[in-house]
Write a structure and sequence with these properties.
The structure is a homodimer.
Chain A lengths: L1 E6 L3 E7 L5 E8 L4 H19 L8 E6 L2 E3 L4 E5 L4 E5 H9 L4 E4 H12 L6 E6 L3 E7 L2 E3 L35 H7 L7 H10 L3 H24 L4 E5 L7 H17 L1 H5 L2 H4 E3 L6 H9 L3
Parallel strand pairs in A: 1-4, 4-8, 9-12, 12-13
Antiparallel strand pairs in A: 1-2, 2-3, 5-6, 6-7, 9-10, 10-11
Chain lengths: ~300, ~300
């Protein structure tokens, strides 16, 4: 049995996978804030899944953790996980000390990419395009996470595509993330609604011109991200995940429409069959937790 | 002994590499125009190197060919090699028939990428950024050509980076190729000089404002290509090759200057150490022919 934990900004999902890779148990906890509380959350998750499966921590074949921020998967070091209140944490070492077994730490988007690859039964190369507060992709090649030479493969949110675009938090202008992410939408569409993206889509459906323009830029930005991923890595599949993926087919149809209009203008783009390559991650699929359970293998 | 042939638009380079991968023999021929003449050129190259090495075609450990256009390296089929007067050619099959041995066919940029990786003694992941009439990259991962799922990995020339940029031959607007390639410069800088890029650099050195602006867009376009390659594949090294690479340090310094100015504005970009990753292919290094000799191994 493999154990995987996805530590998110507010909630933590944890799963136990049986020998065939199927979901055997799942639990959800609130995520603590700050280094000590995050470690405690992970320990609680192991303990709770231990009770449900009857296994001690050492009884699991592997334990893996997906967590936001800059992760060194070799050392288990985590940095800049702002939403968790972490600046620097030796998460791998701390957990090994508490649990008495080795724990594999992975960036949450990379873990989700691996999870999506397995649970969607994909073959070939995958980019998991995570549309959350930011925009980043996790790459899977031959069933393994592809990290690149310095661990930043897939950081496409900071590829600029418009010299006259908005200033990005990274210091550049017109990055993909400024139009195709939760933070990009929040900057453009001011609202008191606790779900600003849904509010934007509702306003656009009601005919609000500004909302329609922002929504169109979102779709074009996602389509641009797909194009970048195909023209560089030539991934067979782009799976859209992250918070914005909960918009479901409303989002996917917008993206398909942009890609189809591009194909009309460019026989070259048409030959790439971009619309065929884009899919949504299944709703509620726990891709990051499942991927975290599997990174132990890598 | 391995034999590699680089079939270019006007000339064909061919090399024989010894068992240790060192250059044993090299020849240069004029390239014939059209399917029959291209096949004849390759056969002549094998025959001439056979005389110099004392080996029959079947005596070489492998024979590989690098050629422009869309290449199916499995079938040996070549399409759309416009400069060679080829629309479609079963080059692998034709040559096997003429030579009595199997021949591996590879796209010339991909072959050059592999050749550069070997002759420059690189480790890790490489992008060979070919700046010729067009712009494309060849990727090498773990010492092997990375083709992607459908053979179009590295076709970054058609990533648009400016919605208000020039219309590209591919039907899109503002592609990297419209500013950072020989054709992009020829469109912007009209001249009767047989070497338009050198004429552009000379005019820029003389203070011509338009020439300076075109040269600046060239450097920014190359820098953008480097950024795209690092933020997607996270290549350790970007080697600049192709016709424009003959500009040498004049070009490399311009690119470094752009990357340094970006790093000033963006701590994120600064952390990527982009200037350290960019190098020029050694002048006259026959990277494509050497790579063609090595694709036989892949």
């Amino acid at each position: 049995m493999r154990l995987g934990i996805d530590i998110g900004g507010t909630k933590t999902d944890a799963v136990a996978l049986d020998e065939t890779g199927r979901l055997a148990q799942r639990i959800r906890l609130a995520t603590g804030f700050g280094s000590a509380a995050v470690v405690e959350t992970a320990v609680s998750a192991v303990s709770r899944l231990g009770e449900l499966t009857g296994l001690a921590a050492s009884g699991f074949e592997s334990i893996g953790i997906g967590i936001p921020g800059l992760v060194d998967s070799t050392s288990g070091h985590v940095a800049h996980a702002v939403n968790l209140g972490l600046d620097r944490l030796e998460l791998g070492g701390e957990l090994a000390g508490r649990l008495g077994v080795g724990v594999r730490i992975e960036n949450d988007v990379k873990a989700a990419a691996l999870g999506a690859w397995h649970l969607m039964g994909l073959t070939g190369t995958l980019a998991y395009l995570n549309l959350g507060t930011g925009l980043a992709a996790g790459l899977v090649v031959d069933g393994r996470v592809w990290r690149g030479s310095r661990g930043i493969a897939g950081e496409i949110g900071h590829i600029p595509v418009d010299p006259n675009g908005a200033l990005c938090a990274c210091g550049q202008r017109g990055c993909l993330e400024t139009v195709a992410s939760g933070s990009g939408i929040a900057r453009q569409w001011r609202t008191d609604d606790p779900l600003p993206v849904r509010a934007l889509f509702a306003a656009a459906a009601d005919g609000d011109e500004e909302a329609r323009a922002i929504k169109a830029r979102l779709a074009a930005g996602i389509a641009s991200a797909v194009r970048v991923l195909v023209l560089t890595v030539d991934v067979e599949t782009v799976v859209i995940g992250g918070g914005l993926s909960h918009l479901g087919d409303r989002l996917l149809c917008d993206v398909h429409e942009v890609l189809a209009s591009w194909a009309q203008a460019s026989p070259f783009l048409a030959s790439l069959a971009l619309p065929d390559r884009v899919r949504l991650v299944p709703e509620g699929s726990l891709a990051a937790a499942i991927g975290a359970a599997l990174v132990g293998e890598n």
